[in-house]
Amino acid sequence: MIHLEQVSKSFEQQPILHNINMHIAPGEFAFLQGRSGSGKSTLVKLLYRELERDTGSITIDGVSIDKLAKYELRRKMGVIFQSFELLERKTVLENIVLAGQILGRDPDKMEAEAMRLLKRVGLEEKAHVLPTKLSGGQQQRVAIVRALLNKPKIILADEPTGNLDPETASEVLMLMRELREEEGVAMLVITHSQHLIETFAEKSWILKEGGVYERQ
Ligand SMILES: Nc1ncnc2c1ncn2[C@@H]1O[C@H](COP(=O)(O)OP(=O)(O)O)[C@@H](O)[C@H]1O
Ligand SMILES: [Mg+2]
Q1: Which residues surround ligand 2, an ion (CB under 5 A)?
Q2: Could you tell me the sign of the dihedral formed by the alpha carbons of 7, 10, 13, 15, in that order?
Q3: Which residues contact 60 (CB under 8 A, 6 or more apart)?
Q4: Residue 169 burial class via C-beta count within 10 angstroms: exposed 0-12, middle 13-18, buried 19 and up
Q5: Whose alpha carbon is nearest atom 7 of ligand 1?
Q6: Considering only CA atoms, which residue is closest to atom 14 of ligand 1?
Q7: Domains of the chain, residue spans
Q8: Does the structural domain 2-214 have CATH classification 3.40.50.2300?
Q9: Closest among 24, 15, 30, 47 to 173, alpha carbons compared
Q10: Fewer CB in a 10 Å sphere around the end CB: N or C, the chain?
Q11: Which ligand is the nearest neighbour of the Cα of 82?
Q12: Is the C-beta atom of 36 inside 6 A of ligand 1?
């Protein structure tokens, strides 16, 4: 479904990623590990075109991501971050629905879909509260719902459990694993945690000195 072929990226002549080849199948639960500064976030940003690669190709369902308008790409890829990135002055529901509004979708339909997903992750009663009233694990579940709202093909999760204690981290990943089955979405999870990779990964890579190596 997602193919990277010979993807490279440098910053100021400093190579960060060099000839990266990766493949993620539909519905796959894939993990990427690597030291701080190894280029993991850069790789994720190339996928959703927050940054542009220097060379190589990236395709989703056989179509180059360069051929898709940014909003089309954002519909195909949901993103989740370590810091949750929720708007503090908007309610949980507003935070979720806003993501779809930017993409021009029908507000009523989105609200119904957001409530369905909030119920699924056990946060139905938090729909109208501010995210600052929620625990870290709850905030990340809101961010997951927001990422799922547009029925993406894949969720890119850049250290989604980096701000969570180990138990909450496991719970969030268990939920993500269930949701990828139910919602038919692939996930690419970046984590430092060897434990989480051993527990959850169906496929994993390590990023090292600009190259990406699949673990067998
Ligand atoms: N926009 C940028 N401009 C210049 N250098 C950058 C930029 N983004 C990241 N870098 C550098 O690229 C390297 C990889 O960064 P990053 O992808 O954030 O690593 P990771 O997520 O694995 O910790 C780091 O050395 C970082 O300083
Ligand atoms: Mg990073």
Answers
A1: 40-41
A2: negative
A3: 1, 2, 68, 73, 76, 77, 153, 154
A4: buried
A5: 11
A6: 39
A7: 2-214
A8: no
A9: 30
A10: C
A11: 2
A12: yes
Short-list 41, 21, 24, 38, CA closest to 83 = 41
Q: Which residue has the tokens 């949701």?
A: 179
- Count of residues making up the chain: 216
Q: Ligand 1 pocket: which of 8, 10, 11 to mutate (most atoms <8 Å of CB)?
A: 11
pLDDT digits (tens, 9 = 90+) for 144-153: 999 999 899 9
Is the distance from the beta carbon of residue 100 to the nearest atom of ligand 1 less than 6 Å?
Answer: no
Cα separations in angstroms, 194 against 40, 173, 197, 211: 16, 13, 5, 19
What pLDDT digit, counting tens, does each position of 37-94 carry?
999 999 999 999 999 999 999 999 999 999 999 888 988 999 999 999 999 999 999 9
The predicted pLDDT at position 190 comes to 97
Q: Pick the closest to residue 193 from 160, 156, 147, 145 (CA basis).
A: 160
- pLDDT tens sequence across 83-123: 999 999 999 999 999 877 766 778 888 999 999 999 999 99
Which one, of 2, 153, 139, 20, lies nearest residue 80 by Cα?
139
Q: How far apart are CA 31 and CA 193, in angstroms?
A: 10
Is a pLDDT exceeding 90 seen at residue 160?
yes
pLDDT in tens, 161-181: 999 999 999 999 999 999 999
Please tell me the residue having the least CA distance from ligand 1 atom 25. Answer: 37
